[in-house]
């Protein structure tokens, strides 16, 4: 009786181990790089198809993901957002370390294929600390519009890159999704 149980247990473990080896061989993990940066979550290759984490890819590409839970459908939107930075009516992108002054952000948004309710423009210091420049409710009636901030006074205290990010808020959501980025370099 004891011998039977041992043989049965060994057969079950062998079958389970073989199944796990087959599953590992049938599905391979792949590393995913976007603009030269390896992503935290990799993809999977199964039956000659590659599966990637949609939210992470969309975030990296500054796209919007809309999830419909009832239909089990994800829709990705990538609006064109062009930002221009103005200081004293002159376009700029570099400042000297310690510079303190005013600037404005103008954004041109087109190819917007989903409903949004608000926009936000923020600047991030080299350490990643966010300062909101301006938020505003919007209700575009077509797929393109312009957005301009008021003058903001800001001090570039350290050397490094200061990303300016343009965010949108989807209708029915409380989350901000970044859809564009411009860099100010403090030298």
UniProtKB/TrEMBL annotation:
Keywords: Signal. Residues 37-89 form the Copper amine oxidase-like N-terminal domain. Residues 1-25 form the signal peptide. The keyword Kinase does not apply. InterPro entries: Cu_amine_oxidase-like_N, Mao_N_sf. It comes from the Bacteria. This is Copper amine oxidase. The lineage of its organism: Bacteria, Bacillati, Bacillota, Bacilli, Bacillales.
